[in-house]
Write a structure and sequence with these properties.
The protein is of the alpha/beta class. It is built from 15 helices and 19 strands. A hairpin with a 5-residue loop joins strand 14 and strand 15. InterPro entries: Aldolase_TIM, N/Namide_PRibTrfase, NAPRTase_N, Nic_PRibTrfase-Fam, Nic_PRibTrfase_pncB, Nicotinate_pribotase-like_C.
Length: about 425
Amino acid sequence: MEIRDDLASTALLTDQYELTMLAAALADGSAHRRCTFEVFARRLPNGRRYGVVAGTGRLLDALPRFRFGERELEVVAPFLDRRTVDWLRDYRFTGDIDGYREGELYFPGSPILSVRGSFAECVLLETLALSVLNHDSAIASAAARMVSVAAGRRMIEMGSRRTHELAAPSSSRAAYLAGFDATSNLEAVRNFGIPGAGTSAHAFTLLHSGADGAHEAEAFRSQVAALGVGTTLLVDTFDITRGVATAVRVAGPELGGVRIDSGDLGVLARQVRDQLDALGAKSTRIVVSGDLDEYAIAALRAEPVDVYGVGTSLVIGSSAPTAGMVYKLVEVDGVPVAKRSSHKESRGGTKKAVRLARSTGTIIEEIIYPAGGPKPDPGGSDVRELQVPLVRAGEVLDDPPTLTESRDLVARGLVSLPWEGLKLSAGEPAVPTTFVG
């Protein structure tokens, strides 16, 4: 089968060593041994107490397109033998995948994804699975921390200019899944149905300058004429106090919002709120942006801020640009296998996981146990299975959760954490993970 569309195949979103391992396994006869690979994080990034699973939907979308057409084979043929090239020509994943729901919280050791099939077909998915899950989970985990400290205030993702152009839409998706309300990225609006947001930058105000000086009022007047009085005007291009006064004079007291993008945001937000109220614009929202992260947002909780716009810190995972997940072989022909390397240990055997909670809904423990063993006794606690079927015999199961449903799952998960799990300070994971069996 030739895949004619260059963008259709995801098969080359991988590392060369996956294919050289395949070639060796085909040569020695081990390629068809039945295996289980698991995706998990040995530990959380420094200072984190929980993680958010994100990217599962994108991975499942990419899986059916992980096929080697003639264009892909032209790339790999120079370093592979003819038998391996012929095998890849007919390749499609025919195994099973179980995993945590997208939007589920995870902790160290959580078996986030379980991939079962022949060694040959499973090993090829390692890089694709990790690149998607590590990127999206890192951003969703950072975004969830920001959402939790924002205490219900509106959040806008605006980090497209601070990341790779092809990563920007998936960054927007991960942020929305974690609780952000809108994105500035239009490809994310198109691909994922995320609400869009955005008005103007400083360049638009400066555009209306002339030889006789700056014409801020003219810029505001133009924007209001095009977008209506509900728009948000950027008031800190020159002098904020004068900018706010000009904004209200042009748009009237029904002005939708003003945005502050620089300076001491807490001090300025208080000053601007007082000024807006004095001018009769009591319903005008204050939007702040400019190098915000979860710590800056937490510091602004007592200030009269209505909307946060977050860019750079969000799309780099707020100092944790990867979730640190790994894809490890844990079982071969029913026999558990485990890596023993120092600080890189793994636990053998295919696993399942349940989460225990009090009757109030607060999570108290995650228990991981052998897939072939009995389900742990909950001891009176509420118990919930964490892994769900995602793929059977190579086919992605119908009716996967929508982005909205996954977003709701994140929100429920954050509410279910013990209160100390929402702290921004470093500490132990919010929920202990127990391995049994």
